[in-house]
DNA sequence: CTGCGGTCCTGAAGGC
DNA sequence: TGCCTTCAGGACCGCA
């Protein structure tokens, strides 16, 4: 599912594709997934593409912000030739490599006939047009404000298990289920450990693992496992799934000590860990 | 404040 | 082969 590394990979790609382009019109195929008036963006130039946590925002001239949340199954594709948009690679979980297809919910058409496609099989994602950037106190994992001190202060007093706590986006934003599982393996901390039971050393290990694993995800351009919809805007796959530590590796040997990776359900989410090295 | 369960949604996978 | 049920889950909301 799209988490920080996937959204950051998309951002870097779209920044190269879109900055300077002028929107012709937005074609909304699923109305419930577009918040705001799509007509407002006609003629606006894209000046930047930014990200905070899992939220991607196209910055437009005249203080307009077109934000995109991919939620579980959102997919962004970009074609220079929007009149004949056929992608080379298989588009996961869609019926056709030609855009738009049955999963396409919104299309942003540009003056030069290039086009951006927002596909979303399960219709949980959305696009929102706003005249101000979303204000949030939450801190992105890659931002300078995400320090060890901030991390300790925001999580160390909670009675919740560390794994679901890291999924909450209101204090730290960007972590989803894949990287949550893998970073706790990296930190050698068991996912069910209560946050307020963690030692200073363990908190520091989780902090360091968070930055390391998220950066590793970006290095491999995100995770495109077979049950995921995520691809880059040019339809290429990411390769982090070839580097999973524990995620979806239940029954397989731990990369550190060969113990068998286990799967449990924790706060309603699939949770993977090594019973030997994660304490 | 916390924490739980329901909701949204659809394709894939499993059972018989 | 085919129909039916179950499952996956990020964010949000209502309720105890």
Number of domains: 2
Low-confidence stretches: none
Helix-strand category: alpha+beta
Strand order of the largest sheet: 2-11-5-4-3
Secondary-structure element series: HEEEEEEEEEEEEHHEHHEE
Using only C-alpha atoms, the radius of gyration works out to 20 Å
Shape: globular
- In CATH, the topology of the largest domain is named Helicase, Ruva Protein, domain 3
The CATH architecture category of the largest domain equals Orthogonal Bundle
Q: Beta-strand percentage?
A: 15-25%
CATH class bucket of the largest domain: Mainly Alpha
Q: What's the end-to-end separation, in Å?
A: 27 Å
Mean pLDDT comes to 93
Proportion of helical residues = 10-25%
- Please tally the helical runs, counting DSSP H or I stretches of 4 or more residues: 5
Task: Sketch the major β-sheet.
Answer: 5 strands, mixed
| Number of E strands | 15
């Amino acid at each position: 599912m799209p988490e920080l590394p996937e959204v950051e990979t998309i951002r870097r790609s779209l920044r190269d594709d879109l900055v300077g382009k002028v929107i012709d019109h937005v074609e909304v195929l699923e109305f419930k997934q577009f918040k705001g008036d799509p007509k407002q963006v006609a003629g606006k130039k894209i000046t930047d593409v930014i990200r905070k946590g899992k939220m991607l925002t196209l910055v437009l001239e005249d203080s307009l912000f077109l934000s995109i949340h991919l939620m579980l199954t959102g997919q962004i594709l970009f074609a220079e030739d929007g009149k004949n948009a056929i992608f080379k690679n298989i588009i996961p979980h869609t019926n056709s490599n030609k855009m738009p297809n049955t999963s396409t919910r919104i299309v942003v058409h540009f003056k030069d006939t290039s086009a951006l496609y927002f596909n979303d099989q399960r219709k949980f994602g959305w696009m929102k047009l706003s005249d101000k950037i979303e204000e949030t106190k939450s801190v992105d994992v890659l931002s300078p404000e995400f320090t060890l001190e901030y991390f300790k202060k925001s999580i160390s007093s909670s009675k919740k298990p560390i794994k679901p706590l890291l999924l909450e986006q209101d204090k730290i934003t960007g972590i989803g289920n894949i990287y949550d599982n893998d970073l706790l393996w990296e930190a050698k901390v068991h996912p069910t450990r209560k946050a307020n039971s963690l030692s200073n050393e363990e908190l520091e290990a989780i902090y360091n693992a968070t930055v390391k694993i998220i950066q590793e995800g970006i290095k491999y351009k995100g995770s495109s496992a077979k049950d995921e919809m995520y691809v880059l805007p040019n339809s290429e796959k990411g390769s982090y799934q070839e580097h999973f530590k524990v995620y979806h590796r239940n029954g397989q040997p731990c990369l550190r000590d060969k113990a068998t990776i286990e799967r449990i359900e924790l706060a309603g989410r699939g949770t993977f860990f090594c019973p030997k090295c994660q304490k």
